[in-house]
Amino acid sequence: MDLAHCSLNSVTVKNASFSRLIELATRHGFGGVGLWRDAYAGNGAAAAARDLRKAGLRVSSVCRGGAFPQPDETSRAAALADNLRAIDEARTLDADCLVLVCGAAAGRDLAAARNQIEDGIAELVPHADEAGVRLAIEPMHPMMVADRSAITSLTEAVDLVERLASPRVGLCVDSYHVFWDVNLAGELARAPEALMSVQLADWVLPIHGQLSSRGMPGEGSIDLPGFVQLTRKAGYRGLVEVEVLSDRWWATDPADTAQAAADALREIPDPS
Amino acid sequence: MDLAHCSLNSVTVKNASFSRLIELATRHGFGGVGLWRDAYAGNGAAAAARDLRKAGLRVSSVCRGGAFPQPDETSRAAALADNLRAIDEARTLDADCLVLVCGAAAGRDLAAARNQIEDGIAELVPHADEAGVRLAIEPMHPMMVADRSAITSLTEAVDLVERLASPRVGLCVDSYHVFWDVNLAGELARAPEALMSVQLADWVLPIHGQLSSRGMPGEGSIDLPGFVQLTRKAGYRGLVEVEVLSDRWWATDPADTAQAAADALREIPDPS
Questions:
Q1: How far is residue A98's CA from residue A88's CA, in Å, rounded to a whole number?
Q2: Are strands A135-137 and A98-101 parallel, antiparallel or unpaired?
Q3: N or C: where does chain B have the smaller number of CB atoms within 10 Å of the terminal CB?
Q4: What pLDDT, in 10s, does the model give residues A138-183?
């Protein structure tokens, strides 16, 4: 792919400072960056937005809002306040979307957690409307159901988007989370208007913990050219992010990691 | 649950000898055992069947056939021969079913792997018919898609059972593999005739590798009383197996592990 159509997610080079992230993205000709909120927390979203504008980089996503299931009212109110702040930051950064990592059940009741997630997103829509910020629900791999998200499949996420019925609410689709799904192509085709973010990471074994065992595109078992093609056929026209949470890659110099990411993306054919 | 309605899977106490497995299952009043093939490989299926009959233990499942996707004709023929042997062993043991761990894609083509799985099971049906052995497809957790099974959800497994359209082909449903699924209740209800095996293990974090991070019922985040109830409502009347692949429990004395399994099952209410 032409890197001008791609975005470097900050967590891929999470040990780089914000200015270093900009330098690495610019050096390789990325069209933009995806930002975890800790990446700009030091100087704030407004300063980050100025620096990015100067560098000519778009913000393809801000990560993250979410964490809707909460054990009590106090923590629920804190999560809501944080979600409203995240929406404001995404507006300041003119981000294509705010990614929602919806949160896991506090106990064993998945159905209750799913209801809290639906109610929690609905509660954010008015503020997102005012801010002009799109909310992208990220279905996460079922191995994260007990610690990160009770929304575990693309089917479930598309159903949720349909029930919420707001053009402000859509999907963040990460290859790592959904590639296993026998209905992948059909579900992507069902959601053409809803595709707000596409992220790439590869599936590598063994799993060490649930979060940061991912591979750079090409290192694992996912047909990533096919995945990118499916998202394009489904109508996605935004930047394709490389978001690799990897203890292995985090242990190398961010310059080498960014180089590897750029090389990996260039190996994927531009979707037709 | 009354342990007479439960079964102790050999892999839960995998360091126990076969005679020790029988002794442990009998001591706690289990109605049967589930057998991995290595558990009886030493003296063979016929000797094992005699010992089990003497002890009054049923065989709720034999694990495993499967491994249908293969890179070439030689390995495909070897897998077929092994599957036919597994069916014969299940007949000798008068097992309620042979569990199919269907296998992963040799490369990155999941659709091709799924076709090979469907063809591979269809090829076994005549021999299973002759032997009177039921074949139980086990949908496995999506974190095992690249190394154990391309059949990653209950929906996909039920669809496969419907396409194969033989009363000899059904499902093995393990809580660990399917609990995350938003459609769990609906899919179990869709498959009342097909439920051939129900297995229990709990979801505990962190994951260390994909295979053997499981918890004893009660140790993790799965609503196992609810799961057992759903399988009963869906019409399952067989033994409920405890099958816990756990490096942690394997490191303790099999007697302690069997005791813990018995205690855990007794904590689960008998389904109504």
A1: 10
A2: parallel
A3: C
A4: 999 999 999 999 999 999 999 999 999 999 999 999 999 999 999 9
Helix H or strand E segment including A135: strand A135-137
Specify whether the CB–CB gap between A183 and A198 falls below 8 A. Answer: no
Per-residue pLDDT, averaged over A75-84, amounts to 98
Q: Do B207 and A110 touch (CB under 8 A)?
A: no
Chain B residues whose CB is inside 8 A of the A182 CB are 110, 114, 152-153, 155-156
Burial category of B56 from C-beta neighbours within 10 Å (exposed 0-12, middle 13-18, buried 19 and up): exposed
Nearest to A152 by CA among A102, A224, A226: A102
Q: How many whole angstroms separate alpha carbon A102 and alpha carbon A67?
A: 5
Nearest CA-CA partner of A191 in A211, A205, A170, A165 = A170
> DSSP characters for B88-144?
HHHHHTT-S-EEEE-B--SSS-HHHHHHHHHHHHHHHHHHHHHHT--EEE----GGG
What topology is assigned to A3-267 in CATH? TIM Barrel (3.20.20)
Interface of A with B in 127-146 (CB under 8 A): 141-143, 145-146
What is the rounded CA–CA span in Å between residue A229 and residue A58? 22
Does the global pTM surpass 0.90? yes
